Please model this.
Amino acid sequence: MKKPTSSVPRKAILLAAGFGSRMAPLSHDLPKAMMPLWGIPVLGHIVTLLRKAGVSEFLINLHHHPQPILDWCRQQNDPSLHIQLSFEPEILGTGGALRRASHFIDSDPFWMVNTDIAIDLDLNVLIDDFRRHAPLATLWMHATRGPRTVEINADGEISSFSSATPGADGTFTFCGLQLLDPGILTFLPEPSFCSVVDGYRRAIEAGRKVRGCPLPGAYWADLGTPARYLDAHRDIAQLADGPDGIALLSTEWKREMQRRIPKEIRTTGVVVLGSNVQIGEGATLTDCVLWDETNVSPGIRIASSIVGSRTTVKDDLQESVQVRMNGLPDEPVLTAVLAALRCQRGEASLTALPARGSDRRFERIRTPRSGGILVRYDDAKRSENARYATLATFLMQNGINVPGVILDRPDLKATLFEDAGTCSLQDALPGMTRQARRRLYRLVIEQLIALHRIPLSTCPPLEPGFDAGLYRWEHELFANHLLRDTLHLPEAGIRQALRDLKPVALYLLHQPLVPVHRDFQSSNVLLTRGRPVIIDFQGMRPGAAAYDLASLLCDPYVMLDDADRHYLLDVYCTASPDGEAIREAFVHAAVQRLVQALGAYGRLSANPATKRFERYITPALAMLKAVGGGTL
Model:
């Protein structure tokens, strides 16, 4: 066994290749060289912490939008600070980046840190742990934040990185900061792309010690999405007067932020302004970050949003989390978009729309003459994403109102659609009379009937149809993420719920198959000039028509009452040639759909970027009880 080290680690690898890739497009417009958190560049803060712990040599790996980091490095004029850069043409993962940096590593321990995090901790605690136990690595852990998928035994050694009960008492989150022995290189898998965690798992199997070190009072936040970036500002503002937040928000910076906000401007929550921000009279700011040289027009309301540098805001930004910037960055996807829209780069504006329940990213592109919704996806994760454009054309040919395809670039994993506006069926219903509500739903049901009448034999390739395995997967989603992780029900009760759901799936398996949307809820129906336009149809597959109908009429987002639900069920069943069979299957389909939705809400609410779905758990449970009480 290697003897415990007595020297202070003097080298650090900073993993910046993925910095901002999850934050795109926000990361395209980084002021002060790097993304600021309360005015302090995140990368600069991490470097400062490491330098205080004795680090003098840094290697920074680059990939996504490297220029701001290069500019930041050029601005450093301390002769005792040595920085090397390593550019990754293709993302290698944390393990691949470490292997690529092997020339930088000598025989001494070294740090490795993700750079899209906000941190405040005493690194000496990790150094002391490494010295005492001489492990292959000591990893910083957090006991309350993040997904908490790591298990640590009584000796402080990591026993699992994939806990069967994530988030349970005694589980931890790996914070992306670690002190390593060079021997880790021998345990990294051979593929160029890999995670350092893969190496840790192999090392543990070989009997090497990999330690997890929680630090009470230390601060950690993942900045990988706009929602988490905003959350970090709120957290740090609350901690500013205590020891946990002082390094991230000094009293001086807090006073400076307060000074920058004009007294006549109405603000609530946490508001952070960069330099030279101009705010018009009557504007209202709530929980937002405005970067350098932003110009806000009079009377504008901005809430839960991030505004990029040199951006003029002329309309309200109030969706869950928005990012607004003027001018499109120079990257292949956006260059193709500009060509399709016949627009110059500086004429366009881009708004990153709030995260939905999938791994796709949505950006609204506006130009003086036109615009569209840009969808970016990863077909390696979900093959259905690549089918969106083909299905859009097919559905339009069959009389279904869907946004037209402006540009489809599978090679860039991006599609540009017509912009169908911002008003969904969910948004339009509050305050509407019963007569108007029913009239609108009748139009939506006409679209649903037209979809279900399309012969499956004419459809392009769809997702695999509903079968026993898919229904069982929806049940397990419900059991794991709602009953077990959210409601913490006893295992006996969970097993009974799964037994009760088996007849529901069996009944639906005997229904005729039609093309079903799979997620036909109010948020996926937009209203354009009074006409319903259907979106989010990439998951179409053969299934029971009642599943879509239940998705619409038992939607927890809007909670139709019994009278409306029965009336609209009659509308569908009267117009459909299979109406009576669908009526009989409706309750079973409603139970199945609500179970799936509740499982999804439980899973999504555990993620800070999509925590807003937590508010729908209670109404969905109420709907499940009202509609399916006699079925379960």
About this structure: The CA atoms of residues 17 and 64 lie 6 Å apart. The chain is about 35% helix and 20% strand.
